[in-house]
Amino acid sequence: MPAPTPPAPAAPAAEPQPQAKAEPQDGCPGCVEVRAPIVGTFYRAPAPDAPPYVKEGDRVEKGQVLCIIEAMKLMNEIESEVSGIVKKILVENGEPVEYGQPLFLIQPV
């Protein structure tokens, strides 16, 4: 009688997605995708009557606040991980976002 085979090793846990990821984008080669690090509601400004943190075409610095994602009544500031030009804002103000969803395309400079 043959010896029993040991069980296959468990698959490794999925790696969490980074907030920013360089990928080729339609119309924006070399752009960095800033992704939502949490599930929540996307806001472009700190208050309804305040100007947005950034607009398309703005130059941003690494660490600059790009938006807020509200999750469970907590306001979480999302910062840029690269310096560059905001090429595209992919989410509308007040829209719900999912973990890992692309929010901005930034062209590094």
Molecular structure report:
With 109 residues, the chain is mostly beta strands. It has one domain (20-108): RNA polymerase II/Efflux pump adaptor protein, barrel-sandwich hybrid domain (OB fold (Dihydrolipoamide Acetyltransferase, E2P)). It is built from no helices and 9 strands. The chain has strands at residues 20-22, 32-35, 40-43, 59-60, 65-71, 74-79, 84-89, 96-97, 102-108. The chain has a 5-stranded antiparallel beta sheet, with no helix packed on it. Strand 5 and strand 6 form a beta hairpin. The protein starts with 19 loop residues before the first strand and ends with a strand. The model is unreliable at 11-19 (pLDDT under 50).
Précis, in short:
This protein is mainly β. 0% of the residues lie in helices and 38% in strands. It has one domain (20-108): Beta Barrel (OB fold (Dihydrolipoamide Acetyltransferase, E2P)), CATH 2.40.50.
Judging from the principal axes of the Cα atoms, what is the shape?
globular
- Give the CATH topology: OB fold (Dihydrolipoamide Acetyltransferase, E2P)
Assign the structural class, choosing from mainly alpha, mainly beta, alpha/beta, alpha+beta, or little secondary structure.
Answer: mainly beta
What is the class in the CATH system? Mainly Beta
Helicity, as a percent range = under 10%
Number of domains: 1
Beginning-to-end CA distance, first to last residue: 67 Å
SSE succession: EEEEEEEEE
